[in-house]
Amino acid sequence: MFEVRCCLMLLVYYGKGKGKTTAAIGTAIRALGRGWRVLIAQFMKVWETGERNFVKELVKRCDQLKGRVVWINFGTKEFINPNDLGGEVFSMNVAYAYGFLKYVLPELLRDFRPDLVVLDELGVAVHLNVVDESTAISSARRFSGSTKPPHAIITGRYVPRPLREVADLVTKVDEEKHYFRVVGEALEGLDL
């Protein structure tokens, strides 16, 4: 039987369909509209995306948002090759992810005190062994069942079952059809 443990929630958006990060960022924008403080951390994404550019521009133009958004991207520009888990790109991503989870996140939770934390692509980081499952679960448990803010969202194409089991909401995004199979690349404005 499903039981909500408290008023704080851990949400997971996962699956092979498009829209997981978009759902998380949309929730972050909704939270900002309610006066919340928001932390967005993107694992293995260092490029400029449309949503990041938009939020950055919005914060720059809107005094009420100043000091209420922290957006961190970390990783390498190169994608991790699943056949080279142990190479330089993989190792650098491991260092960035662990540094964030062990040192940066606890400091931001203490000093910035966000009401919502988005851990974008944490599920993929676990799937590729950039972050081990137990570290991800202990990070997730900081949010699930807590009586103090923040709420949290975890995204990723693959989110392991134990991580989904500690969540209060799990949404699986399935792909029925995708233009990427024809176009063969991510499209600015739709994907980036």
Please describe what this structure looks like.
The chain is an alpha/beta fold and 192 residues long. It has one domain: P-loop containing nucleotide triphosphate hydrolases (Rossmann fold, 3-Layer(aba) Sandwich), CATH 3.40.50. It is built from seven helices and six strands. The protein has helices spanning 20-33, 50-61, 88-111, 122-127, 133-141, 161-165, 180-183, and strands at 10-14, 38-43, 69-74, 116-120, 151-156, 169-172. Strands 3-2-4-5-1-6 form a six-stranded parallel beta sheet, with helices on both faces. Helix 2 links the parallel strand 2 (38-43) and strand 3 (69-74).
Structural class comes to alpha/beta
The CATH fourth-level homologous superfamily: P-loop containing nucleotide triphosphate hydrolases
> Biggest sheet: strands, sense, closure?
6 strands, parallel
Helix content: 25-40%
Proper CATH architecture: 3-Layer(aba) Sandwich
Spans of at least 5 consecutive residues whose pLDDT stays below 50 are 1-6
The number of distinct β-strands equals 6
Q: What is the CATH level 1 assignment?
A: Alpha Beta
Radius of gyration: 16 Å
